[in-house]
Amino acid sequence: MKVAVLDSKGKETGRKVELSDDVFGIEPNNHAVYLDVKQYLAHQRQGTHKSKERAEIAGSTRKIKKQKGTGTARAGSIKSPIFKGGGRIFGPRPRDYQQKLNKNVKRLARKSALSIKNKEKAIVVVEDFNFESPKTKDFIQVLRSLGLENKKSLFVLGDSNNNVYLSSRNLKRSEVVINSELSTYKILNNNNIVLFEGALAGIESNLTK
């Protein structure tokens, strides 16, 4: 599939690039997409949640009232979970949320996500550009030229470009990554994908190993 290459002003350059059908034109595998997104979200969790149980509560260990004759239930410790300020029953403990996923499944998921976006005509290819210095207004002008000013967009670079990255950092609806950082979640979490021309070779190489 051939796609026109645009410049940073949103105009056609007169050139076209070939998008590999093995990456951008496959039949999406929804289960692979689900597994990869699930893993990505799980890895965002710190797992540092913790509450104190009765053995960790600071408090007197004396028996707070006699065993019989009070007309109420027995109670042996002020740290009991049934009392205010007592420990928590089966509270959360620190844990690792990391999940394992086969590399082939991850590649299939990313190819599926790109194929979905390509089918929706939500992928744009632009020639590589740079800014003289990091300026948010310059990046906003690029978004406006591409018709993406009010849409969530993901820009995929071929190599690290500090000026472009810093220019986009203050914009909530735009994100800039290099091709090796591309993930299924980021692809699907944005309305449009803007691929730098220099990123295509890296994406196809990473996903067709």
TrEMBL record:
Q: What keyword terms does UniProt attach to this protein?
A: Ribonucleoprotein, Ribosomal protein, RNA-binding, rRNA-binding
Q: Which proteins does it associate with, and in what oligomeric form?
A: Part of the 50S ribosomal subunit.
For molecular function, the Gene Ontology terms on record are: rRNA binding; structural constituent of ribosome
Lineage: superkingdom: Bacteria
Annotated gene: rplD
CC per GO annotation: ribonucleoprotein complex; ribosome
Q: What is this protein called?
A: Large ribosomal subunit protein uL4
BP GO annotations: translation
What is this protein's function? One of the primary rRNA binding proteins, this protein initially binds near the 5'-end of the 23S rRNA. It is important during the early stages of 50S assembly. It makes multiple contacts with different domains of the 23S rRNA in the assembled 50S subunit and ribosome. Forms part of the polypeptide exit tunnel.
InterPro entries linked: Ribosomal_uL4 (IPR002136), Ribosomal_uL4-like (IPR013005), Ribosomal_uL4_dom_sf (IPR023574)
Q: Which family does it belong to?
A: Belongs to the universal ribosomal protein uL4 family.
Entry's HAMAP family? Ribosomal_uL4_B
Q: Where is this region: Disordered?
A: 45-77
